[in-house]
Amino acid sequence: MPRSDDLTDPFGLSAVALMVVDEDGLVEYWTAAAQGLLGYPAADVLGRPATSLLSDGSAEPGLGRGRFTGDRHVSLRHRSGHPVRLALRVRDLTGRHGRGGRLVAACAARGLDLWELREAAVHGLLDHSPIGVAVLDTEVRCQWVNDLLLRMEGLAPDGGLSPPPPVPGGRMVPMAAVERQARQVLASGESLRSIEHIAPSGKDGTTRSQLPARLRLRTSFPVRDPSGATLGVCQTAVDFADQDRARQRLLLVSEASELIGTTLDLDRTVAELAEFLVPRVADFAAVDLLDDVRAANELAVRQRPPSGQAGLYRAAHLSIRADHPEVVVPIGASTKYPARSPQSTCLLFGRTVRTAVTPSTPWLTEDPLRRAPFVDIGVHSHVAVPLRARGATAGVVTLLRWENPEPFDDDDLLLVEELCARAAVCVDNARRFAREHGAALALQTSLLPPALPQHMAVDVAYRYLPADAEAGVGGDWFDVIPLSGARVALVVGDVVGHGIHAAASMGRLRAAVQTLADMDLPPEEVLGHLDDLVLRLAEEAEATTGGAAVTGATCVYAVYDPIARSLCVARAGHPSPGVSRLREPVGFLDVPPGPPLGLGGLPFESVDVDMEEGSVIALFTDGLIEAHGHDVDTGLERLCFALAHPDRPLEEMCDTMVRLALPDRPDDDVAFLLARTRSLSRDQVASWEIPVTPSAVQEARREAVAQLMKWGLGHLVFTAELIVSELVTNAMRHASGPIGLRLIHARTLTCEVSDASNTSPRMRRAGPAEEGGRGLFLVAQIAQRWGTRYTATGKTIWTELPLPDVTPSAAGDVAAA
Fold first, then answer.
1. SS3 of 226, please?
2. Residue 611: DSSP 8-state
3. CA 670 to CA 629: how far, in whole Å?
4. In what order do the strands lie in the sheet with 748-755?
């Protein structure tokens, strides 16, 4: 029996035997295929009458004299003597001078019969068989389809996919199923089969209960050319009535596994459950969940779940009727059921409850809110099914029937229990995801600054875009840290990796940066201590099984002084900050790169840059300039364009940076911080050089008091005078000159005393018999904050006293008043 790939067109030029017979019936042309078919070489045939090839020597139209056009079956004689049954196709030829002839194509009669049978079978399959057939190209466009599939699937005759017409009371398989399966075949290159449940349509006045449930077997397989290249997908579909209810239940459960729980969204999951149950199983379905599920809290594993008296809310419902007459609770609202209701019993004992519904049903008479609509529409059968997964109850599913005259039977209960059990796992997965997602966001929120503080030195704006958008956490961070002397530290860092482990490591580094900033260390020393910390954390992680190792990080640390209008910057393997000045092109600071944090043993360097007021400083992570797969230079060009015109609002500049530099879903975490510099006027700062003489302390107090009165801060005279006296006295007693005194009127009143000693001051509690040692202790008690910072020429002890709240824009006016 010939194979399918042997059934080529018998009259194809690659296989057919050809000969040319002139008008006298003599053979003029003889092909090698003809020799292979009859065994005669060309020398034995050419010039001889074609009729001599006949097995019986009789005349045959098409081989003798005259003209003939048509197809015939003849018996020719093989060279070996046995007859060969052939099919002939004869066509007239016209040559020069009007002489004619015939072209005779010959093939085995058996091959022609098989080919014609195959062609008839193909046409029968398309026109008369109960199988819908379509061929789709690699773009999932229908190129060949029979009428049956058009009726079954709603395929438009023009080759495009169109949605099926609306079916009253029923729900057809969406056309998305056709496209989805075809795309799966194209992606995998393998055949795919699926069985789909087709809800009764209720056409021609019949009810759904009178129509048998139908299944659709869909098969898709790739169509390839002889070389193996995929040309498209062939789909076949067969509808058949299902008489085996057990098999039908299995098919429904299989279909439910694909349609329920497609996302980790809790609301969508319960909606998918209701959409699957109606109208396949019930005329109405409602899903009520416990309140702690909505709150995404951990459900306690209980032997006896709580009763339905309280703690439920309506998560989803669906009816075959568009007006939903049976609904008494809107989605999202709290709901209660009577104590003897099926829902309360279901939740109490964790089992399915089936009841018949009549106007006199006891539990329904206790619930007049539901009794009226149930009686009006004729509800006759009621089922309550618990949603239980992993030993915990999440809620209850309610099913009703009224249009379907058949009550819920045992087979229905087995089906809905299986469906609800599977759905409960999906609900629990969605709840767990919501809880874990909330925990991750809470962690991120606690690690990053919830709101950047207002500061006299800078106006700031920022963006934080984690690559793991679903978890919302990443390893990038930023910070704005107030420092003494009205200065501010600007920080942006990047921990290697993404997700919650990177976020946890980022939190530890951010806390360390804040601690080091409070010590008023120079930027290069801050990075040096941070480098040691990363090394230590990495060693601890290696020693801890399963520990989240800090594999490396980068950081840029800058300190801006609004009085000196200077910026001191150091970086550790991080991009240099960009600066947009009012009268100069956007550029990037030339800061020594420094090694990434965690290498150890290498120094960091800082640079000082003069900054004019109104300039914008941009600190960012590498994810901003390496997005879109572009090189760094392209990213820097886009960043320069976004930073142009520094007089624009900072939030607008942030939006421009996101729009120009980032795709919708960045591959790496992105954090950037914009700071517009401000400066303190001369009227807000007063400083004096204090000589090392006994009378200098009194003179310092007098100068400080006069300045406070000028600023309108008379209520702080006593406190500030005490602080100035104690700090200047201590500097004269324990340090060496020169001694400097500076007062700064900003958001707080800052008093600074500088000397040339590097000795660290130490606060202690003096004993009862000691005459001294109480000065620094008193200063710490009356000042809001105090501290020490070291400089290249010595140290500065500073204190801050609180002032009434003022906005940065109004602070200068207040100070000058």
1. coil
2. -
3. 14
4. 685-690, 739-745, 748-755, 794-802, 785-791
Angular region, 374: left φ>0, alpha ψ -120 to 50, beta rest:
alpha
pLDDT over 50 (residue 422): yes
Q: Using only the alpha carbons of the chain, give its radius of gyration.
A: 44
pLDDT surpassing 60 at residue 815: no
**pTM of this prediction?**
0.54
The SS3 call for residue 815 is helix
CA distance 253 to 390: 19
Nearest C-alpha neighbor of 646 from the set 677, 670, 672, 620 = 677
Tell me the β-bridge partners of 802. 748
d(CA 626, CA 502): 19
Give per-residue pLDDT as tens, 77-112: 888 888 888 888 888 887 766 677 888 888 887 877
Calculate mean pLDDT across residues 153-171: 42
- What mean pLDDT do residues 381-391 have? 90
The b/e string for 39-67 (b: 16+ C-beta within 10 A; e otherwise) is ebeeeebeeeebbebbeeeeebbbbbbee
139 and 224 Cβ atoms separated by less than 8 Å: no
Q: Give the orientation angle of helix 650-661 with respect to helix 632-643, to 10 degrees.
A: 150
Contact present, 674 and 653 (Cβ < 8 Å): yes
Q: Record the tokens describing residue 511, joined without a space.
A: 């806390």
- Please give the residue that has the higher pLDDT: either 559 or 470: 559
> CA–CA separation, 275 vs 261, rounded Å?
12
pLDDT of residue 816: 42
Amino acid at 295: A
Task: Please state the length of the chain.
Answer: 817
Q: Distance (Å, rounded) from C-alpha 43 to C-alpha 160? A: 58
Quote the CA–CA distance of 253 and 464 in Å, as a whole number.
43
Strand order in the sheet with 100-108: 27-30, 17-22, 100-108, 83-94, 70-77
816: helix, coil or strand?
Answer: helix
Residue 396: name the closest of 406, 388, 405 by CA: 388
C-alpha 497/C-alpha 502 separation (Å) is 6
729 is written with which tokens?
């006295």
pLDDT in tens, 184-212: 999 888 999 888 777 655 444 444 444 45
Distances (CA, A) of 231 to 227, 243, 479: 11, 38, 57
Concatenate the DSSP letters of all residues of 711-740 into one string: TT-GGGHHHHHHHHHHHHHHHHHHS-S-EE
Read off φ and ψ for residue 312, nearest 5 degrees.
-115, 150
CB 72 within 8 A of CB 86: no
Report how far residue 88's alpha carbon sits from residue 37's, in angstroms, rounded to the nearest whole number: 13
Q: CA 316, CA 275: separation in Å to the nearest integer?
A: 9
Q: H helices of 629-760, where?
A: 632-643, 650-661, 696-710, 717-734
Separation between Cα atoms, residue 72 and residue 105, nearest integer Å: 11
Q: Is the dihedral of CA 696, 698, 704, 706 positive or negative?
A: negative
Q: What is the C-alpha to C-alpha distance for residues 178 and 10, in angstroms, rounded to an integer?
A: 36
Q: Is the pLDDT of residue 2 over 70?
A: no
Q: What is the enclosing helix (H) or strand (E) of 376?
A: helix 368-377
pLDDT in tens, 487-505: 999 999 988 876 677 777 8
Q: What is the pLDDT of residue 106?
A: 84
pLDDT band at residue 811 using 50, 70 and 90 as cut-offs: very low
d(CA 407, CA 381): 5
Q: Residue 427 in contact with residue 642, Cβ under 8 Å?
A: no
Residue 108 is inside which H or E element, if any?
Answer: strand 100-108
pLDDT > 90? residue 369: no
| Two structure tokens written together for 438 | 């909330």
If you average pLDDT over every residue of the chain, what do you get? 80
Burial (CB < 10 A; 0-12, 13-18, 19+), residue 366, is middle
**Identity of the residue numbered 473:** V
The helix/strand/coil state of 283 is coil
On whether the CB atoms of residues 458 and 560 are closer than 8 A, the answer is yes
The DSSP H or E segment spanning 273 is helix 266-277
